[in-house]
Amino acid sequence: MLSTMKDSLRNTIIYCIGVLLVAVIFQIFSLCLNNEVIVPSLGVVIRDFFSLLGSGKTYVYLGYTLLDLVISLAIAIVIAIALGAIAGLNPNIYKLFMPLMSLLRILPVIIFIVIVMLFNEIRYVPVIVSTMVLIPMIYEGTYQGIIKVDKSLINAYRLDSSFNIRVFRMIYLPLIGASLKTAIINALGIGIKLVVTTEYICGANHTLGKAIISSISELNYSYIYGYSIILIIVILVIEALPRLGDFLISFIKGRISKV
């Protein structure tokens, strides 16, 4: 445990040094460009970043954006796990789904946005587009987890290995947990960026994407950098939550075993 904490501390220190390096590069770039409107100094960016943190509107924008992310991710997880499980248990179904998943994976996001905007209200576009893009990621993670399950384990439980809810819930789901968890974590990181991009392109109201549009129209580029820092922090927190959960579970189990 002590060794793990030391490694974690060392990695955190190295990461912080990397952040400082990025800040220095940004400041050098700002000085070289010498344009406070397009690339303001680091001091101005930090000032406006804290100004945004003190504004209630920022949390409204962030709340709507995170709501879009949660809804789209939840829908994508349900659909992708169902399809991935069926495909993993039946090779013919996997081949049947392959063109559709390839299309969802390869088609540019802007095409999704344009098509969805033609048939839906602007408010729902980020959720629908993000769901469509995230489904293949989670689907592939589910499929890979299913096909790697040791069939002897299924037989050991003396259960029918054909697809049914009971077998999937009791046997397959725990065994594919690691693969599925990795896919969902990756989907989270990509999902938040995808949601903001879609909000920006379609101009969804009360979102971070719309706030960025307003900052550009007002030539307030320092706010754009401020929103970017907030978005980076949110992504880092989202990606760190599963690891923090694993660490806490491991720590609690270690303390209980010593009792």
Question: How is the secondary structure organized here?
Answer:
Blueprint: H1 2-33, H2 42-53, H3 56-89, H4 91-106, H5 109-119, H6 125-147, H7 151-156, H8 165-175, H9 177-202, H10 208-217, H11 221-258
What would you say about this model in short?
With 259 residues, this protein is mainly α. It contains eleven helices and no strands.
Features:
259 residues; mainly alpha
Structure report:
With 259 residues, the protein is an all-alpha fold. It is 85% helix and 0% strand. The chain is built from eleven helices and no strands. It has helices at residues 2-33, 42-53, 56-89, 91-106, 109-119, 125-147, 151-156, 165-175, 177-202, 208-217, 221-258. Helix 3 packs parallel to helix 6 (125-147) and helix 10 (208-217) packs antiparallel against helix 11 (221-258). The longest helix is centred in the last third of the chain and has 38 residues, at 221-258. The two termini are 16 Å apart. The mean pLDDT is 81.
